[in-house]
Amino acid sequence: xxxxxxxxxxxxxxxxxxxxxxxxxxxxxxxxxxxxxxxxxxxxxxxxxxxxxxxxxxxxxxxxxxxxxxxxxxxxxxxxxxxxxxxxxxxxxxxxxxxxxxxxxxxxxxxxxxxxxxxxxxxxxxxxxxxxxxxx
Length: 136
Hints:
The chain has helices spanning 13-31, 38-57, 59-62, 64-97, 106-114. By secondary structure, it is mainly alpha-helical. It is elongated. The two termini are 21 Å apart.
């Protein structure tokens, strides 16, 4: 489901951006309730991209420090979600490459299925605090 940015006539631009950021974060957190789901991880990464775009749009209004802080937090969140995504992609590629090979590569397949995200770590459940202006 694609949710476009929408602003209400009754709110200031700052209020609209703040509300949109909160809605996007809530959507992302809701998707994380089904851990391990490739679709959930993909959806969260898409929401993070939208939030980063929002930050870039309002960069001049929120100040350099808040922009950098928010952008860094979102970038780190996306990086923490990369290992499970990468593991899933590696497994799918392996499965396609070994179609018809029977159980010849069972050990490699088991190792790929067991590795939830490699060495870089995964989502630890901690959500960065919001900046002083409340955006993201």
